[in-house]
């Protein structure tokens, strides 16, 4: 039997890359009133992938954007999940705050 050539694996994106793209789209919508679609992010080694939006909601003070995660050929349990970022204006001087949303774990013990 002839040996078959292995095809290259299809590239996917990390949950973090999808979250960064969703956050960028939500923030752009909060600033301008428009969601960039597709939205691109800059990665190490000069990569600039673009992501299509699966969710785009805004009321002027809060914007939510979502990206459907494509893990490529990686057997990732989050493949197909919608990664959502919500961005809202805080009171002046409050700075920036990050909070875990539904489905996001929080480390509560040292060493994890």
- The strands making up the biggest β-sheet line up spatially as 3-4-5
Strand content: 15-25%
* Integer average pLDDT: 90
Largest sheet: 3 strands, antiparallel
Radius of gyration: 17 Å
The outline comes out as globular
Q: What's the order of the H and E elements?
A: HEEEEE
- Helix count equals 1
Total beta-strand segments: 5
Low-confidence spans: pLDDT under 50, at least 5 residues?
none
For the record, give the distance between the C-alpha atoms at the N and C termini, rounded to a whole number.
49 Å
Give me the secondary-structure category: alpha+beta
> What percent of the residues sit in helical stretches (DSSP H or I)?
10-25%
How is this fold's topology laid out?
Blueprint: H1 15-32, E1 39-40, E2 50-51, E3 55-58, E4 62-68, E5 82-88
Antiparallel strand pairs: 1-2, 3-4, 4-5
Main attributes of the structure:
112 residues, three-stranded antiparallel beta sheet, 5 strands, globular
Describe the structure in brief.
With 112 residues, the chain is an alpha+beta fold.
Would you kindly provide a written description of the structure presented here, covering whatever features stand out?
By secondary structure, this protein is α+β, with helices and mostly antiparallel strands. It has one helix and five strands, in the order αβββββ. It has one helix spanning 15-32, and strands at 39-40, 50-51, 55-58, 62-68, 82-88. The strands form two sheets. The chain has a three-stranded antiparallel beta sheet. A two-stranded antiparallel sheet has the order 1-2. A hairpin with a 3-residue loop joins β3 and β4. The chain starts with 14 loop residues before the first helix and ends in a 24-residue tail after the last strand.
């Amino acid at each position: 039997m002839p040996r078959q050539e292995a095809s290259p694996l299809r590239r996917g994106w990390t949950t973090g890359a999808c979250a960064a793209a969703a956050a960028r789209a939500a923030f752009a919508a909060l600033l301008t009133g428009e969601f960039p679609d597709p939205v691109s992010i800059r990665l190490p080694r000069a990569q600039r992938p673009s992501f299509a939006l699966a969710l785009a909601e805004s009321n002027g003070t809060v914007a939510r954007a979502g990206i459907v995660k494509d893990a490529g050929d990686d057997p990732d349990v989050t493949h197909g999940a919608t990664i959502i970022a919500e961005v809202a204006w805080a009171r002046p001087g409050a700075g920036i705050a990050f909070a875990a949303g539904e489905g996001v774990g929080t480390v509560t013990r040292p060493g994890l």
